[in-house]
């Protein structure tokens, strides 16, 4: 009979989906008893732990659903290596107020300058604030759209995309699009106009986007929608990856040189 309250409590807490309450209530009760804490503060501590754990799980779920190819934060980006990038603007965007306003971001610059890193960092920041994020490359998105169309699932797939508060389309411009692919991508961006935020990264300046979409009319209409409410991140400069590789190579050579000098008997 003595075990009945514990068994019932465990059942009720599981039914109420309060796993942290269930896991921590005995330990916190002992702590509060030792500290002379009243029942209200005891419950407050438990509820705070439950909320913290629930938020952690929610962030993990958002990150998983975003399908990032890797997890990168803005803290790990070397802003000094990319002086053309407005760091103040990037950190302001990390607050995600632009998503509430349904504004867009376009990151432009040559290959290797960290556009994807910035996109991943801003996407992670949005997930940490509980916002639904989707990450894809332009080529992959077009492929999925064409597959969905062929399988008569296009409307359903478009509906899934619309649930993202922020849709990140990486690497626009690496692969020219077919006429059908360009039209399908335009439709996605058009449907999100003033309904949800889009972030696009591209290695091409705007005047060369016609080469990707194959039509001046379509390109003009797409840019008109994308740039109506937009923050543009200029990321032109030397390749971030190339410079990083050079620094690593120099560091390895220096380490090898120091190691050789220590073992040289002369």
Automatic annotation (TrEMBL):
The record places domain AAA+ ATPase at: 101-236
Q: Which residues form a coiled coil?
A: none
Which keywords does UniProt give here?
ATP-binding, Nucleotide-binding
UniProt biased composition (Polar residues): 256-266
A GO term for molecular function: ATP binding
Pfam families in UniProt: IstB_IS21
Region annotation (Disordered) ranges: 243-266
Q: Which residues form the signal peptide?
A: none
What processes in GO biological process is this protein linked to? DNA replication
Presence of the UniProt keyword S-adenosyl-L-methionine in the record? no
Against InterPro entries, the record matches this protein to: AAA+_ATPase, DNAC/IstB-like, IstB, IstB_ATP-bd, P-loop_NTPase
The family classification in the record reads:
Belongs to the IS21/IS1162 putative ATP-binding protein family.
Which NCBIfam families has this protein been placed in?
IS21_help_AAA
Protein name stated in the entry: Putative potative transposase
Please tell me the species this chain comes from. Magnetofaba australis IT-1
């Amino acid at each position: 009979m003595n075990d009945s309250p514990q068994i019932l409590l465990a059942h009720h807490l599981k039914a109420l989906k309060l796993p942290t309450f269930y896991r921590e209530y005995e330990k916190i009760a002992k702590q509060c008893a030792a500290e002379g804490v009243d029942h209200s503060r005891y419950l407050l501590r438990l509820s705070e732990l439950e909320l913290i754990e629930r938020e952690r799980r929610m962030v993990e779920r958002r990150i998983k659903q975003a399908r990032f190819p890797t997890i990168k934060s803005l803290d790990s980006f070397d802003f000094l290596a990319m002086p053309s990038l407005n760091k103040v603007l990037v950190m302001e965007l990390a607050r995600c107020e632009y998503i509430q306003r349904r504004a867009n971001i376009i990151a432009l610059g040559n290959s290797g300058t960290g556009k994807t890193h910035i996109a991943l960092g801003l996407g992670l920041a949005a997930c940490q604030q509980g916002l639904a994020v989707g990450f894809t490359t332009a080529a992959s998105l077009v492929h999925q759209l064409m597959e969905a169309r062929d399988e008569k699932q296009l409307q359903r797939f478009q509906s899934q995309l619309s649930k993202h508060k922020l849709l990140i389309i990486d690497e626009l411009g690496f692969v020219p699009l077919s006429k059908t692919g360009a039209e399908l991508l335009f439709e996605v961006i058009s449907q999100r106009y003033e309904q949800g935020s889009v972030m696009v990264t591209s290695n091409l300046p705007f005047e060369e986007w016609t080469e990707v979409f194959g039509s001046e009319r379509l390109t003009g209409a797409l840019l008109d929608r994308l740039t109506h409410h937009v923050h543009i991140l200029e990321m032109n400069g030397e390749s971030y990856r190339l410079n990083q590789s050079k620094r690593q190579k120099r560091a390895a050579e220096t380490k090898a040189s120091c190691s050789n000098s220590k073992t040289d008997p002369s």
